[in-house]
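Encode chain A's predicted structure.
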Amino acid sequence: MRRVVVAIMVVLLVGACGSGGDDTNGNDSAAAVTQPTNPPTTVTNPPDTVELAPVQISVVEFSGDGYIRLLNVGAEAADLIGHWMVQQDSAVDLGALIGASIPAGGSFDVPATGLGGVAAAGGEIAVFGGSDYGDASALVGFVQWGTGGSHEAVAVEAGLWPAGMSVEPDPAYSSIELFGDPANPESWS
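Encoded structure for chain A:
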């Protein structure tokens, strides 16, 4: 009985492998071995996805006079001529302050004093590529924390911030810092 089972298994294995023909190893095989193909997958961006600017707000420091760190995550120097950093009704001309650009991989700490300071209880930082602070197409970066600020609706329209969301600063730290997607409040801690 054992020989019959072994003989059947050998026949099944030989039949499955095929016979005849010459493969690249010099072995005879009648059929080419093909790998199963998976259906192609295409990953597309959702229609509300926006391209992020190379310069991102990466840190908002509350202690002392405070500062806002801008980080250039792009592969080239980022020109900031005509860009403005805004909090509530205060604005700073980034091109004049920084001196035109931030090199690739570089950063710049913008003193918060020019914006009236930043408080852990609540605020916002918005970066616009122009001086129309109501133009969603000009908004290139945004974060709000605590009680928030006055440009949330513009950030929501631009696709850079979810409506009604705010970062809650950890009382153990005197800053919020970006660790991931700048448009996701959960990426800030």
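Residues 1-47 have pLDDT under 50 and may be disordered.
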